[in-house]
Specification:
Layout lengths: L3 E5 L4 H14 L2 E8 L6 H10 L4 E6 L1 H15 L10 H20 L3 E3 L8 H12 L4 E3 L10 H10 L13 E4 L4 E4 L29 E8 L2 E5 L2 E2 L2 H14 L4 E7 L5 E7 L1 H17 L2 H19 L6 H13 L5 E8 L2 E8 L7 H4 L11 H9 L1 H14 L1
Parallel strand pairs: 1-2, 1-4, 2-3, 4-5
Antiparallel strand pairs: 6-7, 7-12, 8-9, 8-13, 9-10, 11-12, 13-14
Helix pairs in contact: 1-6, 3-4, 4-5, 7-8, 9-10
């Protein structure tokens, strides 16, 4: 009886040719696992294609809500941005896909899992670290480390020889990944960091030139650091991000062009579109400015950097990530209120912030002096603060003498 292998399947170029390759090289039964994280594909077409290329079974899971509530929103609460720009769209999707792929493998009695990631990228780490954390007994098959194919052009040749229809072509060679949070673009003209992206590279957001000639305001409400409403309408997670994506995309929000440091040590260049996520992150930061005290806010900035690095490196299922998340969740208790953003041709401006748990005190912050702040208190505080500096200055003076 042939062994069963569960493949993380998208229907793209790589995974389309992996099904027949696995059957030829492992004499196995291939179960295609399709995770719906909001990539917008025609799932019926993806299922049909998987069966046509040799899958014995196709299993689809709708993970959109959990992807947002358990992965994306916690990262936004943490302020996790990798290398100042990247909002971790792909990085956050991989652990939930791997989690459910493992569950399918265990449920179906499979002995192995497989993915279509190359040996040069980050995704191989994200998938395989999750496999080890969740089901170390499963064998891992990685075709890119075994077959003789070296490029996407080689993959196209393989697809042609085996009669596999794929959307990619030598003219449309970009590698793309899309979910509810973002769409990424790599390859093609982007491999030279001195090349500007082509207008056709971007697939989601309008260009600033084509965006409306009028400002559009959007108000986002948060409770305990989680988005709960847009423009006064209470929405669930999927609806919230969907609406914000539509608003952001039509106003040219969320485009970035990034040369990044991969976990394996390679520098790569990619372009990302994250319209709704950019609005959420901007609004959340502004609300934290009102609601977090200084020391907590400054320390949390360090946490956000480390959190982003952990997620990018594929270490989601670790005690460190879980412990950092516990800190972040605790810190969000008073992050409640609304933020209004003004959007115009790719620009985001904060025009309003309001919170019942705000630490901003007009009676203290105002230039009008009042009873809430005694200015004479500052003298003693500054002298105590300056004691080390005065001691050092006196020592230097005595040394000179």
């Amino acid at each position: 009886m042939p062994e069963k292998v569960v493949l993380a399947y998208s229907g793209g170029l790589d995974t389309s040719i992996i099904i027949p390759w696995l059957k030829q090289n492992y004499d196995c039964e291939v179960i295609a696992f399709v995770a719906d994280v909001g990539q917008g594909d025609d799932l019926d077409a993806v299922i049909t294609k998987a069966y046509a290329t040799g899958a014995s079974k196709v299993i689809v899971e709708d993970l959109r809500q959990e992807f947002l509530t358990d992965y994306v929103f916690p990262a936004i609460q943490a302020g996790a941005v990798y290398e100042h720009k990247y909002l971790l769209g792909t990085s956050l999707a991989r652990p939930i896909i791997a989690k459910y792929q493992v569950e399918v493998a265990l449920r179906e009695g499979a002995t192995a899992v497989a993915h279509g990631c190359t040996g040069k990228g980050n995704d191989q780490v994200r998938f395989e670290h999750a496999y080890q954390a969740l089901a170390p007994e499963l064998k891992v098959i990685v075709p890119w480390r075994e077959w003789s194919l070296q490029s996407r052009e080689d993959c196209l040749d393989y697809a042609e020889r085996h009669g596999i229809a794929v959307e990619q072509s030598r003219q449309k060679i970009h590698s793309r990944d899309r979910n509810l949070l973002h769409v990424s673009h790599e390859g093609g003209e982007l491999e030279d960091p001195n090349n500007a992206p082509l207008p056709t590279t971007w697939t989601w957001t309008k260009s600033p030139q084509d965006a409306p000639n009028a400002v559009e305001n959007v108000t986002i409400e948060f409770k305990r650091g989680l988005p709960v409403a847009v423009n006064g309408v209470t929405l669930d997670a999927v609806a919230t991000v969907t609406v914000l994506n539509e608003i952001g995309a039509r106003n040219a929000i969320g485009r970035i062009d990034l040369v990044e440091n991969r976990f394996v040590g390679i520098k790569s260049r990619g372009c990302y579109e994250t319209p709704g996520g950019t609005l959420l992150l901007t609004a959340h930061r502004e609300l934290e400015a009102l609601c977090l005290d200084r020391d907590l806010m400054h320390f949390k900035q360090h946490i956000g950097l480390k959190y982003a690095e952990i997620v990018y490196f594929g270490l989601w299922f670790t005690s460190l990530r879980e412990s950092l998340q516990a800190f972040v969740t605790s810190a969000q208790g008073d992050v409640n209120g609304t933020v209004t953003l003004a959007l115009y041709k790719g620009n985001v401006e904060v025009v309003g912030r309001k919170s019942e748990t705000s630490l901003y005190r007009p009676d203290v912050a105002s230039f009008t002096m009042g009873a809430s702040y005694n200015q004479k208190d500052a003298e003693g505080f500054i002298r105590i603060l300056g004691l080390p500096a005065r001691s050092r200055a006196l020592l230097q003076t005595e040394t000179v003498k």
